């Protein structure tokens, strides 16, 4: 009967762990997207900054292209870039917290990752390396 209780419990632990990994992956993805936007804002700023302040400039606002001047657009693009930078900074803080939570979770349930290549035939010299990790269950529920 004890094994019946351990299996769902172990599965629940693994589900939570996979959820944590998925959340970390999503945060990484968001950071990458936002950093790319910050980079694009920097390119725009560098391109229009040396221009005449009264020169026509077009800006997309809510899906609508509007005509402005460089003088009007430049501060707005700078503000947007700074705002994106703040969001990226907060996401990095969240990422550190989530990584720490995940590390604590791994330590608590003695979860460790094993490379798939290690679990397959070790004598096989494959040229196509598979770096994808395989989740190994909680150590407490393994046969000792």
TrEMBL record:
Gene Ontology CC, one term: prefoldin complex
Keyword flag Chaperone: yes
Key words, A-Z: Chaperone
Short name of one Pfam family: Prefoldin_2
Chaperone found in the keyword field: yes
A Gene Ontology biological process term: protein folding
GO molecular function: unfolded protein binding
PANTHER family xref list: PREFOLDIN SUBUNIT 2 (PTHR13303)
Similarity comment text for this entry: Belongs to the prefoldin subunit beta family.
Name used for this protein in its record: Prefoldin subunit 2
Organism the protein comes from: Raphanus sativus
């Amino acid at each position: 009967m004890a094994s019946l209780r351990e299996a769902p419990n172990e599965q629940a632990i693994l589900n939570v762990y996979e959820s944590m990994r998925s959340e970390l992956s999503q945060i990484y993805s968001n950071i990458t997207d936002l950093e790319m936007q910050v980079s694009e804002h920097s390119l725009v700023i560098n391109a229009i900054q040396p221009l005449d302040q009264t020169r026509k400039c077009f800006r997309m606002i809510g899906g609508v292209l509007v005509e402005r001047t460089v003088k009007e657009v430049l501060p707005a693009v700078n503000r947007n870039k700074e705002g994106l930078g703040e969001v990226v900074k907060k996401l990095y803080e969240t990422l550190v917290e989530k990584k720490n939570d995940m590390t604590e979770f791994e330590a608590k349930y003695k979860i460790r990752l094993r490379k798939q290549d290690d679990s397959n035939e070790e004598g096989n010299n494959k040229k196509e390396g598979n770096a994808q990790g395989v989740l190994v269950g909680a150590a407490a529920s393994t046969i000792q």
